[in-house]
Specification:
The chain is 32% helix and 12% strand. The chain has 376 residues and is α/β, with parallel strands linked by helices. It has 2 domains: 60 residues, no CATH class; 295 residues, Alpha-Beta Barrel (TIM Barrel), CATH 3.20.20.80.
Length: 376
């Protein structure tokens, strides 16, 4: 114990620029010298000491990139933050811009199929009054989208927009998104899949068509935004959804960590992690409070700093393809309804869908199923 303390004291003296005292065992020949004073031992000791300090300096100077195994990555001030909002979120831009960690702003753009200008006749079962109300809401929301875009980009923030995917023609929805958002080459495009229930949200088959049409018109694929259950399902059935499984993922999960649950068999890491929303942020406790916003704002963390995020922000390419492995095959069985036994059949039809709840705050709960779009 005493020798270890003496060594630690000697290291502190060397750092301070003073000559250390080494209380090592005395030489039996010359009691004024120790065995350590032999030139060979002194050189060896100095080399080891210098190497330790060099490694410490390198570790301190190299920025560490967050990964899907990190806990509370938003606590790391070097990781960039991204705010996303829809039309009912209130924002004080002057206060929001005071947070220098915020690198980007993502806004909801289109929602399902486009509204019609004509409110006469049978408007999909809606009354004329309801039709006009929805059209006014659509017009105001689009103007708000354009205003936020001007403010955010003028302030130097990266900009992105997402389409909330609903049941209905995926080509019409893709065109609606491009007409609404008019994305520039340096802006991120996102396809928002809230669940795998095709009665409530766009089916995964249609989502692949949507992504392909966006690629055909813009030369870039969109980013996939989804929650844990849907991401896990796509990862397990990635051979059935080869496009969705290779899109960069914006991952929604409101837990302190994703270690052990993130679908890493398909995605090595998330592009963005939505860690805070109205479901886990309140007046008393919140993972991260963005100035100028209420507790219902969505906050995301990137596994990199602001300059690195700016380099890859626009995205557009598919990730490398992966082959199925045993853990994901097991995940397929777990995703099936518990009451239905697993039966081996000759046909290779689509597996039964496990309904997935809405866990994100992109859509208010009271409006999640309020708009009944007709499928074509």
């Amino acid at each position: 114990m005493g020798t270890r303390k003496a060594k630690e004291r000697s290291i502190r003296l060397i750092v301070a620029g003073r000559r250390p005292f080494f209380p090592f065992r005395r030489s039996p020949i010359n009691r004024t010298l120790t065995g350590f004073h032999h030139p060979r031992y002194m050189k060896r000791y100095c080399r080891k000491l210098s190497l330790r300090f060099l490694l410490l300096a390198l570790a301190a100077g190299v920025p560490q990139q967050a990964s899907a195994t990190d806990t509370l990555p938003w606590k790391d001030p070097s990781n960039a933050l991204v705010v996303d909002a829809y039309e009912l979120n209130t924002i004080d831009w002057e206060s929001l811009l005071s947070d220098k960690r915020i690198a980007a702003f993502i806004s909801k753009a289109s929602d399902g199929l486009p509204e019609t200008f004509d409110c006469s006749g049978d408007h999909g079962g809606d009354t004329v009054a309801h039709c006009r109300t929805m059209w006014r809401k659509y017009s105001v929301s689009r103007e708000l989208f354009q205003t936020r875009r001007l403010v955010a980009r003028a302030a130097g923030l990266l900009w992105g927009s997402y389409h909330l995917a609903r049941p209905g023609n995926p080509i019409d929805q893709a065109n609606h998104f491009l007409d609404y958002a008019a994305p520039k080459d340096d802006e991120m495009m996102i396809l928002d899949i809230e669940g795998i229930d095709p009665q409530k949200f766009m089916s995964l088959e249609d989502a692949q068509i949507f992504a392909g049409h966006i690629r055909a018109r813009t030369g870039r694929y969109p980013v996939l935004y989804t929650n844990h259950n849907t991401a896990r399902y796509i990862a397990a059935y990635r051979n059935d959804y080869p496009v969705l499984a290779r899109l960069p993922i914006w991952y929604a999960r409101y837990k302190p960590e994703v270690k052990g649950v993130f679908p890493m068999g398909n995605w090595d890491n998330y592009l963005l992690w939505q860690f805070s929303s109205g479901s886990n942020c309140g007046k008393r406790r919140c993972p991260y409070r963005v100035p100028g916003t209420l507790t219902d704002i969505d906050v995301n963390v990137a596994p990199m700093d602001k300059p690195e995020l700016a380099k890859i922000w626009a995205q557009g390419n598919l990730l490398p393809a992966r082959e199925p492995d045993p853990p994901l095959i097991l995940a397929k069985i777990e995703m099936m309804p518990r009451e239905a036994p697993v039966v081996c059949v000759a046909s290779s039809g689509p597996p039964p869908l496990a309904f997935d709840p809405v866990v994100t705050s992109s859509v208010p709960r009271r409006e999640a199923n309020a708009r009944g779009y007709r499928d074509f």
